[in-house]
């Protein structure tokens, strides 16, 4: 009787595994890391790291598929600087293309993983998608974003589209993704298409607010901001300092100022200066 029961459980696991397909491949975690999974039968193993070179953390996992769930153990390894260990229970979702944490111990940071598709599938920037709502914004799920190298360039990718291109700067891409996750940004908005002169991010329809350790931000007073023509170029100016340059785009400059006042943006923040790879506004 026990052997029949065991055979039935084993058959069920095999059928479920076949239904999901092989989980082997690269996965992106919502902690900004890249995970390399290998499935052999009902067993799953991975190696995950924050970056290719001198990662802040790196870990390994070994678990087993039970129906639609994976149960196992993780531990940090010495390539990274952290030293932790614990248990993980994950659930398979979206036809085996996403993993989500159900239970965890040991302070594991990630809670969701998305299967990384091939470079050929990432063909368009997210800004080419049709905007939703009155503003020119495109929604995305911050938990589904990841950092990927596409045709030699590091990008923040969501599904089949990319949001931001960082060229050879992998560190800036990962830092920018951390910013998006920290503020729970879920909309990328533009002023002026097809060549946008101004962009901003929203979090649940409002201004990102608060603060983040190590941020590079410059404060300004949105109530004092105005649109001025300086030497033939339309700019948003606050006091004696100009914030944004719109060239000949007077209309775009006024639209952008209306956005700043609407959301109460009072900080311009940068990832990488003097030539910032990523710029965002917050309260």
Short précis:
With 283 residues, this protein is of the alpha+beta class.
Topology:
Layout: H1 2-20, E1 25-29, E2 34-40, E3 43-49, E4 58-66, E5 69-76, E6 85-93, E7 98-104, E8 112-115, E9 124-125, E10 137-139, E11 146-150, E12 153-158, E13 161-165, H2 170-183, E14 187-191, E15 198-202, E16 216-219, E17 225-230, E18 233-238, E19 241-245, H3 250-263, E20 267-271, E21 278-282
Parallel strand pairs: 9-13
Antiparallel strand pairs: 1-2, 1-8, 2-3, 3-4, 4-5, 5-6, 6-7, 7-8, 10-14, 11-12, 12-13, 14-15, 16-20, 17-18, 18-19, 20-21
How would you characterize this protein structure?
This protein is α+β, with helices and mostly antiparallel strands. The chain folds into two domains: 2-115, Lipocalin (Beta Barrel); 119-282, no CATH class. 17% of the residues lie in helices and 42% in strands. The protein has helices spanning 2-20, 170-183, 250-263; strands at residues 25-29, 34-40, 43-49, 58-66, 69-76, 85-93, 98-104, 112-115, 124-125, 137-139, 146-150, 153-158, 161-165, 187-191, 198-202, 216-219, 225-230, 233-238, 241-245, 267-271, 278-282. The strands form five sheets. Strands 1-2-3-4-5-6-7-8 form an eight-stranded antiparallel beta barrel. Strands 9-13-12-11 form a four-stranded mixed β-sheet, covered by helices on one side. A three-stranded antiparallel β-sheet has the order 10-14-15. Strand 5 (69-76) and strand 6 form a beta hairpin. The longest helix is centred in the N-terminal third of the chain and has 19 residues, at 2-20. 29% of the residues are buried.
């Amino acid at each position: 009787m026990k052997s029949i029961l065991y055979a039935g459980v084993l058959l069920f696991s095999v059928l479920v595994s076949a239904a999901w397909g092989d989980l082997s491949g690269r996965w992106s975690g919502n902690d900004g890391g890249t995970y390399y999974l290998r499935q052999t039968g009902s067993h799953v193993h991975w190696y995950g790291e924050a970056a290719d070179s001198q990662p802040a953390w790196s870990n390994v996992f070994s678990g087993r598929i039970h129906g639609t769930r994976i149960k196992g153990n993780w531990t940090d390894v010495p390539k990274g600087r952290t030293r932790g260990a614990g248990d993980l229970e994950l659930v398979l979702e979206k036809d085996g293309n996403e993993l989500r944490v159900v239970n965890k111990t040991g302070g594991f940071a990630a809670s969701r993983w998305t299967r990384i598709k091939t470079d050929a599938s990432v063909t368009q920037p997210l800004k080419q998608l049709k905007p939703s709502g009155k503003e020119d914004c495109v929604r995305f799920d911050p938990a589904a974003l990841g950092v990927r190298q596409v045709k030699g360039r590091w990008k923040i990718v969501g599904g089949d589209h990319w949001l931001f291109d960082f060229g050879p700067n992998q560190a800036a891409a990962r830092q920018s993704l951390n910013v998006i996750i920290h503020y729970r940004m879920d909309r990328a908005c533009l002023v002026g298409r097809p060549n946008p002169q101004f962009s901003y991010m929203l979090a649940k329809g409002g201004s990102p607010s608060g603060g983040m350790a190590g941020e590079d931000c410059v404060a300004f007073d949105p109530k004092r901001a105005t649109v001025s023509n300086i030497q033939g170029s339309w700019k948003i100016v606050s006091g004696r300092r100009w914030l944004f340059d719109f060239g000949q785009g007077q209309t775009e400059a006024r639209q952008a100022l209306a956005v700043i006042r609407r959301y109460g943006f009072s900080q311009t923040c940068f990832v990488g200066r003097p030539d910032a790879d990523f710029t965002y506004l917050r309260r």
